[in-house]
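Query structure, 331 tokens:
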């Protein structure tokens, strides 16, 4: 089969967040913090936390089912399933295979890709390239995380910032020109791998009683360094993609940033000279959901009418790795 598509479009989106809400005041009962500190430093008011029966694949499958419904497609229409996550249900098989079976998708290639909080933009470009090869018609891409499973609930510098959830999109080939996924600008710099990472659980430091005692199976972060790098790489990726496409920032109807920290987003907005009201924000409700952050925001922005047909939208992310990315879409 060779369909030689002209474009790849977003046919549908869906998202899912667990029902259990943990407010800043709830966290102040666990660690030495306050609603005032968390809100002024990050813009976060509350986050969703999955229960012990609800795994990344469960949340991913729920978001995906909503995306399929939104696209008007059936499970049998999907040829590719890609999940971006740093909290897979288990090291293998892939969470994509687990989602596949939960949704009854019979014939699809399935894989996980790990690019931390930039993961959704990474899988969007990978899926887009596969679709443009002409061998596939519809891809289901999912960003899903159960970050609560790798947070150190004794570490106030990290546990207050993150939450659980999932977002999904259906990407499909189209014969229309100049619509859908217009361009990507992805990047990575492994030299900064030590600012945000989880040391334990891989082959270099497998689980042992000592690794557990030393709390190696939890996310570690050097917050100030991450902050500075985040602003720098997101500004760079956003400027490059605008320049590559001969666009000015005032031509963007909407910006969907990775929802990590309000102060990072405000600095980015001022450096790009884009008014804050053009940014879609939901981090006050969910905190940082890593790979799920952009697809949850994309789904909510579409459903709330913040992105209209023909609008140019910029998505921009950064994450552990470091990784970063920008994507330009016309819905
Ligand atoms: N509650 C109360 N106090 C806290 C706290 C909390 N949850 N976390 C840290 N503190 C304390 C620190 O211990 C420090 O105290 P000290 O001055 O007595 O040593 C003080 O607050 C300032 O800490 P600092 O780390 O300098 O604060 P900050 O202004 O840099 O804010 C972050 C911390 C984490 C909010 C900020 O650095 C940040 O947002 N970084 C980016 C993180 C991010 O986005 N990560 C995800 C990447 S995808």
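Result returned for the query:
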């Amino acid at each position: 089969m060779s369909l030689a598509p002209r474009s790849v479009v977003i046919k549908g989106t869906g998202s899912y967040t667990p029902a259990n809400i943990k407010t800043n005041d709830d966290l102040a009962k666990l660690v030495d913090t306050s609603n005032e500190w968390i809100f002024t430093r990050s813009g976060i008011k509350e986050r969703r936390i999955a229960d012990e029966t609800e795994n990344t694949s469960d949340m991913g499958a729920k978001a995906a089912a909503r995306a399929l419904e939104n696209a008007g497609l059936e499970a049998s229409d999907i040829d590719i399933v890609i999940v971006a996550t740093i909290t897979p249900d288990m090291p293998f098989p892939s969470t994509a295979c687990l989602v596949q079976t939960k949704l009854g998708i019979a014939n699809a290639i399935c894989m996980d890709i790990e690019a931390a909080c930039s993961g959704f933009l990474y899988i969007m470009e990978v899926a887009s390239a596969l679709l443009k090869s002409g061998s596939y018609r519809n891809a289901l891409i999912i960003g899903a995380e159960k970050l609560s499973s790798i947070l150190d609930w004794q570490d106030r510098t990290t546990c207050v910032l993150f939450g659980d959830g999932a977002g999904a999109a259906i990407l499909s080939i189209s014969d229309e020109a100049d619509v859908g996924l217009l361009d990507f600008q992805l990047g990575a710099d492994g030299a900064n791998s030590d600012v945000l990472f989880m040391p334990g659980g891989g082959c270099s430091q497998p689980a042992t009683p000592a690794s557990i005692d030393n709390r190696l199976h939890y996310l570690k972060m050097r917050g100030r360094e991450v902050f500075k790098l985040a602003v720098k790489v997101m500004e760079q990726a956003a400027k490059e993609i605008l320049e590559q496409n001969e666009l000015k920032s005032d031509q963007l109807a909407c910006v969907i940033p990775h929802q990590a920290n309000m102060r990072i987003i405000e600095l980015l907005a001022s450096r790009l000279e884009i008014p804050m009201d053009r940014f879609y924000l939901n981090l006050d409700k969910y905190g940082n959901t890593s790979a799920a952050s952009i697809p949850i925001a994309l789904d909510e922005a579409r459903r709330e009418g913040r992105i209209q047909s023909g609008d140019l939208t910029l998505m921009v992310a950064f994450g552990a790795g470091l990784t970063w990315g920008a994507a330009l879409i016309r819905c």
